[in-house]
């Protein structure tokens, strides 16, 4: 095998070198040259085939053959040869007139000791028994976005990332190994030891690495939080005994909408509107449709090219007693829809201090301020607006029926948002003994958000006006405090390696919200946007749900042991006991154990002569994790006051209060059992690596809301332990990394397959309907036993009725006329009714793919990221929302107008039979996207130093350059509702994802 590999690699490398260096080799041949021969071996004296050997500072080089031998013609002025091999330390050797140079290479310590961050500690990658994937910060920072979550798209097998929208500052929903619960399916995030519910506040430029913990062996140490996976984020740190360095980075780009929706023009609209009026019993509205011409494309009116910019200064280094990393960042993103933008300032201070030999104090602190402006629902309004109207007339904004003028809506409806956040931790490490360390860690997550919406008094048309001004102010204050105390033990003795951690943690989370409005402000400017400035007689509080507060606490005990024997037999055992104030005394605590084992087969004696395989590990794990992400106080009845009524002849207001929510004192933990079996393989000196995992994840006692009859008198339904859901799947990762002389390249492909099934709903539930379409209270998804969560549920269409005779001889709904859709008689009973609805499509992808490519030659580098999701559908609900006559998508041009004209698109109507939930509005959501492409150039060090810099790199970047999809909407990535798994991939009019072109530079001093 080794000989075959060596021949293949040597041949391939020689061809590649020939292509790269042909233009240089010709002039070199005219110089005085000498021949150098030699052999390259590893640390044991074995020959190393495929080693790169080249003259330092040139492109002249070769590779060793299957016996490790090489020969290289060098010029007379050559002084040094460089020997490099993936997984081994690079050697630079002076020629000194020699014609024979034998060199020995040693394995890279960095490769052997690669460290990954795990819960409450670090571990060598080779000793890990769980399913953990890492993404370095450089790959995250390549993508110009405010969201770290969005930058994870296509980077990790088993992780699906969907942007919440294309709006400036928008985040993304992350799903790890499918959806295993009927409530909140988000993972938890751990940022430098602080546990948080989202990472929207993070600046991507501050990221050092991200670890994604997927199986129970890795996540059980987080107990109650680990059921949906864990994302650990490490930010950049300073370094001891390092001179101060300054990095500056800047980028500027332009965003534009990727594709517009195909809508009819003015003449086509008038023709369709006339036809619709006749079909609904009226008369034509427009005598001469063709006279309208092209008309107004309202999408062009609301979309714009928008700027995006990002600037960061880093100061880092350290002395013998302190290391520091201080970063200041400014990010601004205009929206591609007029009236929307996002601006963020971030200050991060990560320092560590050696107070004494056994004591170290450190902190990771981030302070974030952001403000944004959001547009009213311009996407939907531009989609619906009549193309026969112009935006303006002689009086200003032109009146538009029936949706109002989108430009006027943006002008008069003003929204201003700001947020302050402080996130970080302060820790103290005490080395009690050589191998025993105590850490106390105090984390805080403090936030204040405020939103102000103002509408002045104005008049555009009877349907678009405000008879008085109105200011609405809403805000949220939240406080999250975490205190952790852990003991960590690390010891290596002989063939044994042992590390352990035990700890005790408490966390307190408090949140309060308010909402109020007032009219009669003395002016329209933002200086008057205060509740105290208005007319007190118009003051009004929002609903009870908008003005409330809540608090919950967690108490936890944790322990984990990692053991390795001879580096090949691995064991990880962990346990966590969590107590939550969201459950009653009898069910307050839950226990979450996990165990993982590993066998590094490559370390066995019988693998010593298998030169092709450098690393082979089998691992398996099983464990239980928990979930308590429900509202506070669900186990006790809540009484709401201020429910007043007028009684008596004097019409006296009487104070009223009543229980508004049904309580469930038997609430207990939702638990997820997960089995994971994995293999890790490294061959060809670990140039080629492969990782595969099979997992089975079953969630039991799922916490879900149980509908109650209205006559019970409760405003909200109780939460119960009811359902069970299983996810089975595979995660694959295949990577190749190599270098040939000055040319390095890498390829990584990931794939994930998941199958979701509901096992039971429990508590008398047979079905859960969800996914409101926004039209007539209709719901598009159904959840039942034996099917995936929230599959699309409706009628299956099989054609269009062409005549009354066909209707009389075919099962149909009452009121059907020629031109209406034919629905399949699923039951075969000769009738069409609700029983003929069926599973018409998946709302969640069953396959996700990612492809990451990187190349570098001398100072030039190129990286490319592709991602895609497959096996799911999108319900195009915006086509169904027709409360009046709105504009039409061009698909309506293929409508039925008489016998034989169409058997797919029905006659034009605004409602009725053809707007039932059916596969008429279901479209294939599969997509493949070129997520990011970056080309950079790093100037030679001699040149950058001449300019007073240590390093200078410039680059151009393109994001979302190409999307291959059949979906007709703005984007096939429709954000799932984070708090409602039944509402997913229903397009009611999303803010489009943008294509971004960016130029940037990185400078080090």
State mean pLDDT (0 to 100 scale).
Answer: 89
Number of helices: 11
C-alpha Rg (nearest Å): 32 Å
What is the chains' assembly state?
Answer: single chain
Q: In this structure, how is the largest beta sheet organized?
A: 22 strands, antiparallel, barrel
At the fourth level of CATH, the homologous superfamily of the domain at 2-110 is: Carboxypeptidase-like, regulatory domain
Structural class: mainly beta
> And the CATH topology of the domain at 2-110?
Immunoglobulin-like
Distance between the termini: 48 Å
Strand content: over 45%
Give the number of DSSP strands.
55
Helix content: under 10%
Low confidence ranges: 1-31
In CATH, what is the class of the domain at 2-110? Mainly Beta
CATH architecture designation of the domain at 2-110: Sandwich
């Amino acid at each position: 095998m080794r000989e075959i590999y060596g021949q293949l690699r040597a041949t391939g490398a020689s061809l590649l070198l020939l292509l790269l260096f042909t233009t240089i080799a010709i002039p070199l041949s005219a110089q005085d040259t000498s021949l150098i021969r030699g052999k390259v071996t590893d640390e044991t004296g074995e020959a190393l085939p495929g080693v790169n050997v080249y003259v330092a500072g040139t492109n002249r080089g070769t590779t060793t053959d299957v016996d490790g031998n090489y020969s290289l013609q060098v010029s007379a002025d050559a002084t040094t040869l460089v020997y490099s091999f993936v997984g081994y330390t690079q050697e630079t050797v002076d020629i000194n007139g020699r014609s024979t140079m034998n060199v020995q290479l040693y394995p890279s310590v960095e490769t052997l000791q690669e460290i990954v961050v795990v819960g409450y500690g670090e571990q060598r990658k080779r000793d890990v028994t769980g399913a953990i994937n890492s993404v370095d910060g450089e790959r995250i920072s390549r993508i110009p976005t405010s969201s770290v979550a969005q930058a994870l798209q296509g980077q990790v097998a088993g992780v699906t990332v969907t942007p919440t929208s294309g709006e400036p500052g928008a985040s993304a929903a992350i799903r790890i190994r499918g959806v295993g619960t009927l409530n909140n399916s988000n993972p938890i995030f751990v940022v430098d030891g602080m546990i948080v519910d989202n990472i929207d506040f993070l600046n991507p430029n501050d990221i050092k690495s991200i670890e994604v913990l997927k199986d129970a062996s890795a996540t059980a140490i987080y107990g109650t939080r680990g059921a949906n996976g864990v994302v650990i984020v490490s930010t950049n740190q300073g370094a001891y005994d390092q001179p101060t360095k300054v990095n500056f980075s800047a980028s500027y780009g332009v965003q534009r909408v990727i594709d517009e929706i195909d809508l009819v023009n003015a003449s086509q609209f008038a023709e369709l509107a006339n036809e619709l009026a006749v079909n609904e019993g009226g008369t034509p509205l427009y005598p001469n449709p063709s006279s309208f011409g092209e008309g107004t494309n309202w999408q062009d009116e609301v979309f714009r090219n928008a700027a995006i910019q990002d600037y960061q200064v880093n100061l880092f280094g350290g002395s013998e007693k302190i290391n520091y990393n201080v970063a200041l960042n400014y990010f601004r993103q205009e929206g591609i829809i007029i009236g929307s933008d996002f601006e963020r300032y971030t200050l991060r201070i990560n320092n560590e201090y050696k107070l004494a030999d056994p004591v170290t104090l450190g902190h990771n602190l981030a302070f974030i301020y952001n403000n944004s402006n959001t547009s009213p629902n311009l996407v939907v309004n531009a989609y619906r607006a009549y193309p026969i109207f112009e935006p303006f007339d002689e009086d200003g904004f032109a009146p538009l029926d029936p949706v109002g003028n989108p430009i006027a809506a943006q002008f008069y409806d003003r929204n201003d948002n700001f947020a302050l956040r402080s996130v970080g931790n302060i820790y103290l490490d005490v080395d009690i003994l050589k191998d025993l360390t105590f850490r106390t860690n105090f984390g805080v997550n403090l936030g204040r958000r405020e939103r102000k919406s103002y509408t002045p008094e104005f008049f555009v048309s009877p349907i678009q006006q405000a008879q008085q001004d109105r200011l609405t102010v809403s805000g949220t204050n939240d406080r999250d405090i975490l205190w952790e105390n852990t003991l960590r033990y690390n010891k290596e003795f002989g063939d044994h390696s042992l590390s352990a951690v035990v700890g005790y943690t408490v966390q307190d989370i408090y949140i309060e919200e308010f909402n109020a409005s007032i009219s009669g402000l003395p002016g329209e400017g933002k200086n008057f946007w205060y509740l105290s400035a208005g007319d007190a007689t118009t003051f009004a509080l929002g609903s009870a749900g908008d003005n409330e507060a809540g608090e919950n606490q967690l108490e936890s005990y944790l322990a984990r042991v990692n053991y390795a024997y001879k580096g090949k037999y691995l064991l990880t055992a962990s346990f966590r006991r969590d107590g939550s104030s969201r459950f009653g005394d009898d069910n307050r605590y839950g226990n979450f154990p996990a165990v993982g084992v590993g066998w590094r087969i490559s370390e066995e004696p019988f693998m010593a002569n298998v030169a092709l395989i450098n690393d082979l590990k089998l691992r398996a794990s099983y464990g239980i994790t928990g979930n308590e992400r429900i509202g506070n106080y669900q186990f006790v009845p809540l009484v709401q006051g201020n429910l007043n009524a007028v009684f008596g002849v004097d019409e006296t207001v009487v104070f009223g209060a009543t229980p508004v929510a049904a309580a469930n004192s038997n609430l207990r933990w939702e638990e997820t059992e997960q089995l994971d079996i994995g293999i890790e393989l490294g061959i060809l000196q670990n140039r080629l690596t492969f990782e595969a995992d099979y997992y089975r994840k079953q969630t039991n006692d799922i916490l879900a809301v149980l509908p109650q009859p209205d006559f019970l008198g409760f405003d909200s339904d109780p939460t119960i332990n009811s359902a069970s859901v299983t996810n089975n799947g595979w995660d694959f990762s295949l990577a190749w990394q190599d270098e040939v002389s000055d040319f390095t390249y890498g390829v990584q492909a990931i794939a994930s397959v998941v199958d979701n099934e509901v096992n039971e709903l429990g508590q008398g539930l047979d079905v859960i309907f969800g996914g409101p379409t926004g039209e007539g209270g209709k719901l598009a998804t159904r959840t039942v036993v034996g099917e995936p969560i929230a599959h699309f549920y409706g009628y299956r269409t099989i054609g269009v009725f062409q005549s009354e005779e066909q209707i009389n001889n075919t099962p149909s709904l009452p009121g059907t006329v020629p031109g209406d859709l034919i629905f399949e008689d699923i039951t075969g009973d000769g009738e069409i009714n609700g029983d003929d609805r069926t599973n018409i499509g998946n709302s969640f992808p069953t396959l996700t793919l990612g492809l990451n490519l990187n190349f570098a030659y001398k100072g030039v580098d190129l990286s490319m990221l592709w991602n895609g999701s497959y096996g799911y559908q999108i319900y195009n609900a915006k086509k169904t929302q027709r409360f009046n006559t709105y504009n039409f998508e061009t698909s309506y041009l293929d409508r039925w107008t008489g016998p034989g004209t169409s058997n797919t698109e029905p006659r034009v109507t605004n409602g009725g039979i053809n707007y039932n939930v059916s596969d008429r509005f279901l479209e294939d959501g599969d997509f493949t996207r070129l997520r990011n492409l970056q080309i950079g150039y790093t100037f030679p060090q001699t040149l950058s130093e001449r300019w007073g810099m240590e390093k200078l790199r410039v680059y151009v970047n393109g994001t979302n350059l190409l999307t291959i999809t059949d979906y007709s909407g703005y984007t096939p990535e429709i954000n799932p509702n984070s708090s409602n798994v039944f509402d997913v991939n229903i397009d009611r009019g999303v803010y489009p994802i943008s294509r971004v072109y960016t130029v940037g530079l990185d400078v080090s001093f």
